[in-house]
Specification:
By secondary structure, this protein is mainly alpha-helical. It has five helices and no strands.
Length: about 130
Amino acid sequence: MDKKRLSSRKLKAISNILSCSSMDEAAKRSNISRATLYNWLKDEAFVRRLREEQEALFREGLSFLKQAVSKAARELIGLLESEDETSKRLAAKEVLSLSLRLAEYQEIDERIARIESYIDKKSGSREGGIP
């Protein structure tokens, strides 16, 4: 999406939508009426850009969380050596629970891959994805 296709006012509104807790607040910060903001939300280019920005924020947040996963895992595993029996038990329970969920997700992922492969073979697709 070309940034020049949206006005600076619309880009400011998008930024405020992403940072405010309500559309009313986003409209106020953008110095536009609530009705104008909702009209802009009917504009395909505006909505497309808003979604792109939302996805970028999500990816950024996910990247940040990924960086913290190793630290969190080390802390949780470290609690397994705790002197406090309650902390040790809760850490063990959490490690087991997370391990089981990971195994379930891996199984689901494998099943989806097999289904996609089956569909590809049945449809004669050579691209490897669902047609």
